Amino acid sequence: MSESGRPWDEGGPDRLYTVNRGRAPEEPRPVELVSLIVARAEPEPGMAPEAAAVLRMCRFPLSVAEISAYLALPVSTVGLLLAELLGDGRVEARAPVSAAVLPDPELLQAVMHGLQNL
């Protein structure tokens, strides 16, 4: 039992060591916090629970930061997990959707006035 009284401390060093299989975080990271991850395979029997969870949750694009939050794991640990999944071709990393270029302020005002006149 952990010091917090829970049977398994989610963020404890022993869990992180197990998830990482003893590997240290890499520099630079294989993916950025805002990179979108999309699953390209289904979970398989015998797969690590965290890797299977990533494949299930990433049927639709999720950012690395979101995956980290959902798994309650540090970004460095998730980065190692994703690097392995990327290397196996089980997931794909996409650049984040760029912010749309704002239209001309005069155009925005014209649209706003047009809507107010309706």
From TrEMBL:
Highest rank taxon of the organism: Bacteria
Basic and acidic residues bias locations: 1-13
Region (Disordered): 1-24
Name of protein: DUF742 domain-containing protein
Organism: Streptomyces malaysiensis
